[in-house]
Amino acid sequence: MDEAGKIKYWQSMAFRDAEAMMTWLSAIGFVEHATYRDAGVVVHAEWLWPAGGGLMFGQAREGGGIKSTGGSSAYLVAEDPDAVFDKAVAAGARVERAMVDQDYGGRGGTVTDPEGNSWSFGSYQPS
């Protein structure tokens, strides 16, 4: 069983421009597991967060499972959240909440991706 086969929770999103978002996802550290296209349109993609977790997405389109784009949010645990935060901003994200040490432990911050989704990066790992 590969890493994707162990993941039991997959966040799902739709993007207006899935190709551009794949570039952004790669920039912050997601790894492509599978991407399926039909006539050049991304109809289904599975990308992995190396620390654990997966994201399924496709291009927003007629007949697609998710109708809305933007407005989703995700929290990603990272060993170096400052580095991921900086990569996200360098790739076009807007700072929503700067990186700070959290009262409950760890360090975190939040950005908005080019399509309006909120991504928080932190070292806090719930246990």
UniProtKB/TrEMBL annotation:
Coiled-coil stretches noted in the UniProt entry, renumbered to this chain: none
Polar residues bias spans: 115-127
Domain named VOC: residues: 6-124
Region (Disordered): 103-127
Superkingdom of origin organism: Bacteria
Alphabetical list of PANTHER family matching this protein: BNAUNNG04460D PROTEIN-RELATED, VOC DOMAIN-CONTAINING PROTEIN
Protein's UniProt name: Putative glyoxalase superfamily protein PhnB
